[in-house]
């Protein structure tokens, strides 16, 4: 369905500025960094707490975008494009989506609930795709912005919509309901967790069910507490109450990974096999079966398709590949909308200039096939993909015109014919429909490693960055410390994400860390905290800016830039105000000033200092003293040299506790990685890193035996012990062993028995239902690094930076 600018002007009550020229909107965008913005794009300049897209309009005009929805026109772009001016751009996006939704008359399933929305949506899509041509929310797009963006995926060839809606506050659901306009509601689950946005459980349920206001029916697990809020007809299911519309009974369990159910509906019964055993999956499957029954899908089809349900992997993952490649694993889905998202992620994550995509046939009801592949081809071209490998008969046929295309008729043929050595130093997006088994390609191209991984949640990093940004003025610059391999989380990947999120500066400890970032293509200015005289030459070659903290260092650097005849090389002056680590002391300021006076070889980019106790407000007086010394010393330098450098003194806990000392820049470190220095600070942060391993082996140990080196643990009654392939050489400190520490298996504590070995540890699983190759969490969401640090009397900084390089890092994004 096409729509034009003209058709939405009244919908969003916009004022027009610029030469009005109506055109058909081909694509709605809110992301200035997407390479898919072009002359057919209508761009909504959204404003968040820490982000204002109005700042990027200039760049977007340069990339061809002609029309913007804004709340004001920034000065530098006046008269350069068509502007639709509204009072609230997010609202305008929602109003546009509402208008667009009204152009369609097919049935829509609207899903909400505390958990399970995305899985139920993906499963319904799978179960119904042979009966309908479906448009659905991509990934977990269910927010105030995600829902509108999902709706724009609909077109005239669809005949069913499946959209999810998620809320966190009162008043939000009404807006989403008006956009989704569902006919059939699905209520997945109501969590008991306390949500900040609501007074109590009842208020939370009442808000969520607003989605169903105009539904003909609501599908849910029989639950009086929820049902009393629902005014519509209900279609319920239950495992315990045979009064429910659909009643299901488990047939004896066999521990073989599947569950057989007898399902009773409408006076008949049938038996289904669900390929899961856990309660959550069974409940998700029952929601789906109920919707299918409501839609009159015949029982045999239900039986046949439900047994093929699969684990849903929604997040995009970047993994280390062979020969220095980076793999973006999206081997579970293939539709046009998720292709566009994956291409954006590829651009963000590319570590090497060369971009490759391996793509299967696209399965998407909706567009006529030629048109679909035309759009796919265009997206690939816009994203400047160097090498395109297509697998599948259909895609091979339609994409053969593209330059750089290599095609294969099946995954098996590709695996047989393709030489893996031809993949070198490139970023590879692997995207295919499930039936193509692209996971086999991932296995082939993935770097083989042992099973311990440190998973890094890139969304959480962005969340934490935004939290600290919200603590300072929007004009205050942010330097992020990525020293020590990004506090153990990875250097390049994090730097790339920060560049994408437009921080102002990066900080590293040593020149070689900065050089590594430059070699990987990072363009942000980088300050080096400990420049050694021997590295000055390399620093200049790689455009790295030294912290100058001594007269000797300054003289040596000045000598070098003079020899090289360089003008205005950026440097940073460190002042010692009480940390007593590095920096100029008060008595040295006159000499510093005389060396820098009338010196055009260097430019003083910033003057800074470091607080010794910003994390501990009981040292409040000392922190204030440091700040006043900094003000005095820096003024002396600034006035004498008549310069206007950036001034900065705050690290993470400084930002949290002393935002009045923010000056022109702050230096964010540990907080970005999800660790604050107080409980309140931590409650605002999201966990970034999860260290995972697996169980290698399980054994029963009899009374009287002992476990591990030096017979440290004595067995006084028979126990069950699991061996985990992670030890002190991976960075797990021995102090955490001998029953002081534990790991989590199936969310339960498994105490570490005896000494931690170099590469392994043994844990007590007597009371845990687990088996070899089950997942083990060493730290993460529910066992925080801070807890471990406290128990072994150190700080989280040390635990995080101690995770050795042999542990593979995996980056993901929801
Ligand atoms: C490491 C470091 C920071 C960041 O400290 P956090 O406590 O991790 O926020 C800031 N400034 C300097 C000079 C540093 O060395």
From TrEMBL:
HAMAP family: Ala_racemase. This is Alanine racemase. The modification N6-(pyridoxal phosphate)lysine is found at residue 483. Pathway: Amino-acid biosynthesis; D-alanine biosynthesis; D-alanine from L-alanine: step 1/1. Residues 688-812 form the Alanine racemase C-terminal domain. Keywords: Isomerase, Ligase, Pyridoxal phosphate. Belongs to the alanine racemase family. The lineage of its organism: Bacteria, Pseudomonadati, Bacteroidota, Flavobacteriia, Flavobacteriales. Catalyzes the interconversion of L-alanine and D-alanine. May also act on other amino acids. Gene3D superfamilies: Alanine racemase, Lyase, Ornithine Decarboxylase, Chain A, domain 1, Mur ligase, C-terminal domain, Mur-like, catalytic domain, MurE/MurF, N-terminal domain. Its cofactor is pyridoxal 5'-phosphate. Its EC number is 5.1.1.1. Substrate binds at residues 581, 758. One of its GO terms (molecular function) is ligase activity. The active site is at residues 483, 709. It catalyses: L-alanine = D-alanine. CDD domains: PLPDE_III_AR (cd00430).
């Amino acid at each position: 369905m096409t729509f034009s600018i003209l058709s939405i002007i009244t919908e969003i009550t916009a004022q027009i500025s610029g030469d009005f020229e109506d055109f058909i909107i081909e694509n709605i965008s809110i992301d200035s960094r997407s390479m898919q913005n072009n002359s057919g794009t209508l761009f909504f300049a959204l404003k968040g707490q820490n982000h204002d897209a109005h700042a990027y309009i200039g760049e977007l005009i340069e990339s061809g975008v002609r029309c913007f929805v804004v709340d004001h026109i920034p000065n530098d772009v006046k008269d350069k494009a068509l502007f639709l001016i509204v009072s609230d751009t997010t609202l305008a996006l929602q109003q546009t989506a509402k208008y667009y939704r009204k152009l369609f008359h097919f049935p829509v399933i609207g899903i909400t609930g505390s958990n399970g929305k995305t899985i139920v949506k993906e499963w319904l899509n799978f179960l119904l795709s042979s009966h309908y041509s479906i448009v659905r929310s991509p990934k977990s797009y269910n927010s105030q912005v995600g829902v509108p963006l999902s709706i724009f995926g609909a077109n005239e060839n669809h005949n069913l919509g499946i959209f999810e809606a998620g809320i966190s506050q009162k008043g939000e659901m009404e807006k989403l309901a008006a956009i989704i306009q569902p006919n059939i509601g699905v209520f997945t689950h109501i969590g008991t967790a306390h949500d900040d946005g609501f007074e109590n459980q009842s208020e939370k349920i009442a808000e969520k069910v607003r989605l169903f206001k105009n539904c003909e029916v609501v599908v849910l697990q029989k639950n009086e507490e929820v049902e009393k809020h629902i005014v519509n007809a209900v279609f319920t299911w239950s495992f315990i109450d045979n009064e429910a519309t659909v009643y299901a009974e488990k047939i004896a369990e066999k521990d073989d990974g599947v569950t057989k159910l007898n399902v009773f509906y409408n006076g008949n019964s049938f038996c289904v096999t669900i390929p899961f055993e856990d309660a959550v999956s069974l409940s998700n499957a029952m929601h789906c079966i109920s919707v299918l029954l409501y839609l009159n899908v015949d029982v045999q089809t239900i039986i046949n398709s439900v047994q093929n349900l699969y684990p849903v992997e929604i997040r995009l993952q970047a993994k280390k590949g062979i020969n220095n490649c980076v793999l973006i694993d999206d081997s579970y889905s293939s539709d046009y909308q998720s292709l566009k998202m994956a291409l954006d992620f590829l651009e963000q994550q590319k570590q090497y200039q060369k971009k490759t995509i391996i793509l299967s046939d696209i399965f998407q009801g909706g567009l006529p096939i030629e048109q679909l592949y035309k759009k796919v081809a265009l997206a690939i071209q816009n994203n400047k993909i160097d090498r395109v490998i297509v697998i599948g008969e259909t895609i091979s046929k339609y994409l053969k015109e593209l330059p750089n295309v290599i095609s294969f008729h099946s995954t098996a043929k590709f695996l047989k014919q393709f030489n893996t050595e031809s993949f070198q130093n490139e970023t590879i997006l692997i995207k295919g429909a499930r039936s193509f088994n692209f996971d086999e390609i991932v296995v082939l191209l993935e770097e083989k490693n042992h099973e311990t991984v440190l998973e890094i949640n890139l969304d959480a990093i962005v969340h934490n960055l935004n939290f600290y940004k919200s603590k300072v003025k929007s004009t205050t610059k942010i330097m992020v410390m990525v020293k020590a391999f990004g506090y153990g989380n990875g250097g390049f990947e994090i730097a790339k994400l920060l560049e994408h999120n437009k921080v102002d500066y990066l900080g590293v400890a040593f020149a070689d860390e900065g050089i590594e970032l430059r070699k990987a293509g990072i363009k942000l200015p980088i300050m080096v905290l400990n420049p050694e005289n021997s590295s000055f030459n390399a620093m200049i070659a790689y455009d790295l800016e030294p912290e100058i903290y001594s007269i000797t260092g300054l003289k040596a650097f000045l000598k070098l830039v003079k020899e090289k005849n360089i003008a205005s090389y950026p440097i940073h002056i460190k002042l010692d105000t009480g940390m007593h680590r590095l920096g100029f002391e008060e008595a040295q300021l006159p000499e510093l000033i005389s060396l820098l006076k009338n010196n055009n070889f260097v430019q003083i980019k910033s003057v800074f200092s470091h607080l010794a106790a910003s994390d501990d407000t009981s040292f409040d007086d000392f922190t204030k003293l440091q700040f006043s010394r900094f003000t005095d010393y820096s003024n002396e330098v600034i006035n004498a040299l008549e310069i206007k450098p950036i001034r900065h003194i705050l690290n993470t806990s400084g930002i949290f506790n002393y935002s009045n000392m923010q000056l022109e820049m702050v230096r964010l470190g540990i907080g970005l990685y999800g660790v604050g220095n107080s409980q309140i600070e931590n409650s605002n942060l999201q966990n970034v890193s999860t260290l995972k391993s697996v169980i290698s082996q399980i054994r029963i140990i009899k009374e009287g035996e002992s476990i591990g080196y030096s017979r440290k643990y004595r067995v006084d009654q028979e126990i069950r012990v699991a061996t985990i392939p992670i030890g002190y050489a991976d960075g797990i400190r021995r102090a955490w062993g001998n029953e002081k520490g534990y790991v989590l298996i199936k969310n339960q504590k498994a105490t570490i028995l005896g000494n931690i070995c170099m590469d392994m540890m043994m844990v007590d699983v007597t009371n845990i239902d687990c088996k070899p190759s089950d997942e083990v969490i060493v730290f993460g969401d529910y066992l925080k690094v801070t807890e471990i640090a406290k128990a072994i009397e150190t700080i989280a900084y040390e635990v995080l930076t101690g995770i050795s390089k042999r542990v593979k890092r995996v980056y993901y994004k929801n």
